[in-house]
Amino acid sequence: MEQRIVVTDEHGRHLVALVTHDWLGREVVWSAEIEGKILSVPLTGTAEDKGSIPAAVQMTVLRWGIRAVADF
């Protein structure tokens, strides 16, 4: 399944992640691509269930310090 999730960087700017996911045993494995103006950032992880994927993606964005590029 594929979905778009809006997450927020550490400065409060919004990022859009294109997320795909599937079950692997008892966990949901997800893969996301943060769509950027300059480059796209791939991310992967696991979640307890489908409903916790947005929180897992948000946590990963904050953990890795992925930020939106401000328009100048």
Q: Which key phrases capture this entry?
A:
1 helix, alpha+beta, four-stranded antiparallel β-sheet, elongated, 72 residues
What does this structure look like?
This protein has about 70 residues and is an alpha+beta fold. It is built from one helix and four strands. The protein has one helix at about 55-65, and strands at about 1-10, 15-25, 25-35, 40-45. A four-stranded antiparallel sheet has the order 1-2-3-4. The radius of gyration is 12 Å and the shape is elongated.
Layout: helices, strands, pairs:
Elements: E1 2-8, E2 14-24, E3 27-35, E4 41-47, H1 53-64
Antiparallel strand pairs: 1-2, 2-3, 3-4
What is the structure about, briefly put?
The protein is an alpha+beta fold and 72 residues long. It has one helix at residues 53-64; strands at residues 2-8, 14-24, 27-35, 41-47. The chain is built from 1 helix and 4 strands, in the order E-E-E-E-H.
What's the alpha carbon Rg, rounded to whole Å?
Answer: 12 Å
The number of distinct helices, counting runs of at least 4 residues, comes to 1
Helical fraction equals 10-25%
Structural class comes to alpha+beta
Termini separation (Å)?
36 Å
Major sheet strand order: 1-2-3-4
Q: Give the strand content.
A: over 45%
